[in-house]
Each structure stands twice: as C-alpha cells, then as structure tokens.
C-alpha cells in the first residue's frame, strides 16, 4: 500500500511525501517480519528496561517501539545487515528532517530519493532471510514448543560459534527473556539451560553483567518471580560474579560467614566443599570486593590451614584455586593474616604446619613491593616454631610496615 502511494507521490513531484511513504513501507515490512519471527524475542532485544518490557506483549505493542529501537534490534537479529543499518539510519534522519512527516524548509532531490528507495528495497523490503536467521528461528521455536535434548543442544554449538558478536549477545538476551518470563513453562527453562552450556562462552562480558543488573532491577521493582528466575539463570551458568557489587557483597559476606561456621562445626569435611564452590562462583576471576576482602582472606586462611583433626580434602582444590586467584594486595593481606596471632594456636599442630608451607608457597610469587618482600624473606628465614611468628620482633616490625603500606 505505501509503495503504491510512494509511486503516486513521485509522479506528482511530491518527493517529500514520497519519502514518508517509503519509510512507512519499510517500517511496516520490518514489523511483519518481526511478528512472523518471534515477537517476544524481539521485545527482549529492543527494550532493556524491565519496567517498559512488561507492557509489551502483542503485535499492536510494536507501535510503542521507536523507529531507532526497531532498526537496532532488527539488525541485532539479522533482518538488516550492519551496512544496511547505517544506510537506514540516514534514511530515517532524512525522513524526520526533510520529508512531509514534519514541517521543514528542505527540498529533496530526485536522485537522493532514488538512493533512499534503493536502500529500503534492497536492505529490508526484498532482503531474503539468511541461513543464520532461519537456524535461530528454528532454535527459538524448539525452545518454546519441544524438548531440547542434550544432543540437540550440542548440534547448535557450530551455529553459536559462527555468530557475530552482536548476534550472540542478541540471542543470549532472547533466551534470558524466555527464562524470566512468567508465562514460560518449566520445560522452556530446561531447554534454555541446555543451550546456555554452548552459548555462554561466546557471550560478551558486558552482556553478562547486564543480566546481573536486570536481576537487581527486578528485585528493586518487587518483581519477585522474575527476580527469582533471573537469579536461577545466572546460577545455571556460574554467573554470580556478574551480580551488581552491592548484592554481590551482601551475598558473598553471608557465604563467607557460612564457611567459617561450618568449618567449626561437626562433620565440616562434608559441609565445607559445597559452600566453597558457591564462593568460587561469586569470586570468579574478579578481585574480591573491598567490603568483604579482609574477612574473606581471614576465613580462607583458616579453612586452608585446617583443624588439628584434619582438613576438608574435597574442598582443597577449590581453596587452592581461590588462593591462586589472589591479587598482589590480597596475597599481602593473606601473609599478614597467616603470620599474625589469629592462627598461632593452630600452627602448633602438624597438619596445619604442613598446610602453612603450601599456603606460603602459593603466596610467594604474588608478593611484590618492598614491604611485602621484606616480610616474605623474614618468614622464609625464620627458624623458630611457626606459632611464634608474631612474637618475633623483626617480623612484627615488618608486619606493621606492610599494614601501613596497604592502608
């Protein structure tokens, strides 16, 4: 319909009106393709605000999406090429400032209009679906209509590896939207978790972090069900590290307290490993938040040295991974902790003494700066009982210097 009006307007010399009709046809075609593809997926890409997203449900709601949002989300899906997106941005700008859509004093030339028509026809109206779009459409249909087995999920791995970064991020956003939707069935979420195993390694860090932000916004808006699903999504991929700092600090602080508590309780060998793994999920490869750093170092030192009755063997690989992930400042704090009075009593027993040596060897290459190296060298050459570190005058002086340096 709009292309017919475009032709009549061109014939009458009304190029500004023709451009307006051309743009209307382009947007109409894009909306049709989106509805036929996956409308919910599109809304998840076009709108990052949970408050706005909850009001978008059916085809009529596409009118609430601006043309700019429409183009950008369509490009992320693959309806428009990256070059086409840039060209359409120009057409959109000219439609807003040189067409009959708004009052203006600009005069549009015939050759410029011809160029805009070529862009819209070539990049949207007559653009065939790419193999990637077809495969992605099939995947989304399977998520919502069938059971995705482990074998079927693995078959999509080559598709995920071949996606452009923006397409990967768009698909991840779409799967997140399916997962947190209150209308999704448990089977849909099972399907998403199967696929995430192969998609998550390709998702950009900033997109992963955005999922944590969206979880926080659901909580702030009291959307409890969606917040629970968002957190479940992050837990499925070990994404606790991407939670916002305030939430991450609060929950990590609780886990650190829990680890210290189960370490002192009966049957700690059984209860320590799962808590340690949860902490590892929160830490990831990031520095420990400053608000809990000292407590984290203190408790991790305690559990690594163990009790006089022994250690939680199943948790040791996790503890070692966490220690090897220390930053130089964290390693310096750990050296202060292990040579201080808090652990002097336990270091009089054989097993903790053995683990002190392992602990110190892991810290050694991370210690940099004159104060840390000075304390390291004094500890290395100390010949007295390990439980007497803090009573040695030279070590005590070096500890004070390092404490001042870190303050």
The portion of residues assigned to helices is 55-70%
Unreliable parts: none
Mean pLDDT: 87
| Structural class estimated from helices and strands | mainly alpha
Largest pleated sheet: none
Tell me the span between the first and last alpha carbons: 71 Å
Characterize the structure shown.
The protein has 407 residues and is mainly alpha-helical. The chain is built from 22 helices and no strands. The protein has helices spanning 2-11, 15-37, 39-46, 50-53, 67-77, 82-98, 110-125, 131-145, 150-155, 157-162, 165-180, 186-199, 205-220, 224-236, 245-264, 268-283, 293-305, 316-324, 328-338, 350-363, 370-381, 393-406. Helix 2 packs parallel to helix 7. The N and C termini lie far apart (71 Å).
Q: How would you summarize this macromolecular structure in one to three sentences?
A:
The protein is mostly helical. It has 22 helices and no strands.
